[in-house]
Every structure is written in structure tokens, then in C-alpha cells.
């Protein structure tokens, strides 16, 4: 028999400027409006459903603090459009489009119109774009950039329904309306989670307060144990007492807000090690969750899945394990990463109903393959906030249908984890626990780059300077330790290095350094000069435009050295060019160029990627590409295109397929397998040559 535990992890790092107290980023407010409240309210429709939620303490704290405070982006929204300074306008244009275009901009014509006016690829150092925008444009943008974050569950409620119906020509009063509605949602979040807990429908977990990677706090060298082939830490950081302090602070804060100490703790990024587990067990934690990759390494096995991703040796994964030490024990559960990632990274590209049916049928198949005489637990655990902006209707259709199937299922029972574990006896013991996380089974994201190393060294030095100062002073300075603990948050280290660079990376860099700088302000010491310098190098120029017309031979290989020499290209291995979705990147570079009548594309792939799709954002239709054929399709029309593959894909596309008034083409390139999306580029903009460009080409 198979029970199902669904765990939604809700978290945001501390966004307050430690010196001024200003909230510098809006994600708590925006995700509350779009994700946090509806995720729990949806349960009212499905009384048989049991779910598990982890709300991190630093998220809860910020939700509470939003009543008297607000964030910088809300302040920019409130400001009268005619009174914005040029600097404020640039900030709005840079950040107020920071959502997926296909699902959160393109469905709203005015929002997409404003994006086209700004340009898909925006350089904040180029202020000439300001001349294109009138005050009424900024007013519409200020409203829409917030309005699209209102969850579909609430969009039929006045006055929000009226703002969606209005579509454009918003007023200053409309801005106040949407911000007030968001605050009302924020005010309900914790109330509704308490209500769901008291009704017995959810179990609530907590985390170490500021979401640190506990194994790296306990011993930085656990990074080498998790990945012996990775970059070994060349810094010393071994402070299990910090891990203990973060955990106890988080559990005490949770108890003050929910009236009980949780039995389960979510370790940030599902990062576990023996030392981290010891910290949990010493604090009386009953259970935690790891990732299937960590269990495989710990058992010394390899997972085998069939063509549908169903584990052939699933009994080992769907069993809780006991870890014993020093007369204490703790239970470890391990999530099915493949199934969890289907929700997190893949189903957003599917029809929502088809995806929900597919997921439910996979779970039923697992149930039929397991021995009936034994009881098993399938754990689906993932972020509860980040996937949904990639779904149509913010995932509401998917969740409703999936939950309805579970609610009426005679075969699959959803459970609160502590309730399930209370019925289990004689659990197998896990003798060896290899450190790791849910990202590639290691800690490389947080400790594997030069930028990570620099950040850890700065943190270690600041911590040492604080300890040395306290020894001389003869007492502990709690205010300074709060800054240390906030600097230990995993989120800063996530954005260091090149893996996940974004437009917000410099702000995360600054926030991290600001906490360390605040330590020196508190103890009255001059800060080391390196804290004034960004840790993360700003990554630019992942693309180059064409230098001249080209006319390659469409044969899928490099016929001569010069045929693509004058082409433009996008480097899709750059963090700015690709969106890593947990799969290996399969598209490396997109080359492009024109002659008088055609657009030519060359797509460099690895691992012989067999299916590609090019989706257009400002044009109808899409291009489907395989080794033997390519065609452009929209509505019920289909046009065959010239394509060849040997070393790479080469494609010839007649310019007559494009609107002659179109000055640029915005597209994304996707690799597919059986029509399912494996990887996707970011939005790429190809400028169609105009008369000036043609003149430059002919002069070259």
C-alpha cells in the first residue's frame, strides 16, 4: 500500500537593508499575493486532502513586518508617474518586467506592448529609452507589474476584477487599489495556515531561522565529501554552534506563532550530513527530508527507472529510515526527485489537465508495482512558490484537477507525515549518510565557485573579528550575531558564481555584504575594504550581432570556415542565455544571419539533441525541428523549411513568413523529448536588418 506525502516549501530570504530597515525586494509581497494564500485556501475545496507545508521563520517574520512596512518596489509603484525621476524610471523599466513573458506578460496585451516598447533585452545604462515612455505608460506599468501577481483565485473579486477588465489607461487611484488588495492578502496568510492546522488538514514544518546550508555551517569540508571531484573548500568554517543557534531560534519562533513545536524540520535545500542530523536530533526533531540522490549514494546503489520515470527499485526510496547515535534517533524520509521535478520544471509546458492526469497515473502505477502486504510512503517535496508562474493560470487548473483526483481516490491516501510515522514500527536503520542536497546531490551551488569561496572567507573573517571583540569586551553582542546569522542564509551563495546569475544577483551580493558591514558598525570597527567591493562579477555580452550578410549551405556541417564567420550568435551556456531547469543543458549556441530573402539559423547542440522547438513571442506560430525535417506552423497551416543535421542543425527560413512591419523577432529555443520540454533558452531578440543595417553590411 502506498501513501502520499506532499510537501510544499515556502521561503524567502531576509530582504531588509540592515542599516535602514527598508525592504529592498518585493518577493514576499508578490508571492503572498500569488502563491502563499491560495495554496492553503485551495484545501477548502478538498476536505479529504492532507498536505504538509514548510514556512521558513524568516518568511513568517517578513509577512508579519509588512503591516507597518513596505518594500522599495511598492514605493516606486505608489509614486505619481509624472513625478518619477529618470533614475526611478530606469529602475522600473529594469525590474518591473521580471516575470516569465509567455505566462505573465504576453496574456496582457498592454503589458506586452510596454515590454516591446522597452525592448526584450534592456540595458539599464542606456537612458535613451526613456524618451519612448509617457507618464501614462509608466502608470500602466506600475499597475500591471503588480496586478499580474494577484492569484487567479482572487481575480473575480471586486475591485480587482474591475482592474483586470480595464486592461489599460489606469489611474493613480488604481495603483493604491492593487497595493491595498495585496496587503489584505498578506494579512490573511498566517491566519489561514493556523486555521488549516487547527482543522487537522495540514502539518506545518519549520527550518533553521535564516535558511542556512546546515552541513556547511557544521563543517565546510562536507562539500568535498558530497562531491570528491569538486573544488575543495580552501576556507575554514566549522561552527556547529551556529547551526544549533539557527535551528533553536527557528523552532522557538515557530512555537510563538503557531503554539507548538514542530515534529519535522525542513533542512534548507534538503542539505543533510551526519553533523547536521546530529544537530536536529539533539534539538528533539523527530524527522526530516532528504533527496533521492543522497540516499542512493548512502546505500551505494543506482536508481533505475522505466521509460515513464517509474522506479524499478522503488521500495528502497519509499521507505523511511532511522539514524541512531548517542542514544538518540531521528527518521529520514527521501523525496522522489524525478516526480517532484515534473511539477517543478516540466508540467508547466503541458496542458494543465493532461499534466494532472499524467501525474496521478504515475502515482497509481507506483502503487500497483509495490508489494501489497507492506506500507510505503511516496514523498513529493518541492518549492511551493516558484513553479507556478510557468504554468497557465498560475497552476490553479493543474492543482485543482490533481487535488480532485486525490480527494476522491480509493487507492491513494494523502497523509501528514507525523501521522504516518506514528503508525510505523521497526524502521530500517541507515548505517551511512553521505552528505548532499537536492541540487545534484552536492553543495557545489553554494560552495563550488570562486565567488562562493570569497563570500565564505569574508563571512569567516567577520565572524572571527566579532568573536575576538567579544572576548575583549567580556560579553555577547546579540545584535551583531543576528547579522552573522542572516549572512549565513543559503540564498546569497545561490546567486554567487555563474550558475544562476540574474538581474537581481548584484542586489543579493550587496545584501550579503551589508550584513557583514553592519557587524562592524555595531562593534565600532572599521570594515575591511573588500566588503565595499562586489563579490560577483557582472556577466554581460552573451550575444553578438551579425557583421554582414551570410549565405550558408544548408548541409548541417561546416562546409567552409567562413560561412558562419559574419553571423550573430547567442551563447546559450551563459547564465543570461539559458534557464537551467535541473536538466543538462542541451543547446549550446544559436547562430543567426540574413541574406536579402532568408533568415538562417545554426543551432549547436550536444548529446545529439533530436527535437527542437522555436517559439515566437511577438509572432504567431512556432518552428519544429528534427534531424530530417523542419516546419513552421500556426493555427492549421504548416510550411516545410530546409533543414540539415550532421555536426549541428542548419535551417533556412524565408523572411516572407514574418510580418514585413516587424523590426525584430523575439524567440525562445527549446529542446524536447517526446514533446516534453527538457531545456529552454531565455528570450532572444533578433533584429531584422533595416536600411541602415543593410548599408553597414554592404560597406563592411
Automatic annotation (TrEMBL):
<protein>
    <recommendedName>
        <fullName>Glycoside hydrolase family 57 N-terminal domain-containing protein</fullName>
    </recommendedName>
</protein>
<dbReference type="InterPro" id="IPR011330">
    <property type="entry name" value="Glyco_hydro/deAcase_b/a-brl"/>
</dbReference>
<dbReference type="GO" id="GO:0003824">
    <property type="term" value="F:catalytic activity"/>
</dbReference>
<dbReference type="Pfam" id="PF03065">
    <property type="entry name" value="Glyco_hydro_57"/>
</dbReference>
<dbReference type="InterPro" id="IPR052046">
    <property type="entry name" value="GH57_Enzymes"/>
</dbReference>
<dbReference type="InterPro" id="IPR027291">
    <property type="entry name" value="Glyco_hydro_38_N_sf"/>
</dbReference>
<comment type="similarity">
    <text>Belongs to the glycosyl hydrolase 57 family.</text>
</comment>
<keyword id="KW-0119">Carbohydrate metabolism</keyword>
<dbReference type="InterPro" id="IPR004300">
    <property type="entry name" value="Glyco_hydro_57_N"/>
</dbReference>
<dbReference type="GO" id="GO:0005975">
    <property type="term" value="P:carbohydrate metabolic process"/>
</dbReference>
<feature type="domain" description="Glycoside hydrolase family 57 N-terminal">
    <location>
        <begin position="5"/>
        <end position="422"/>
    </location>
</feature>
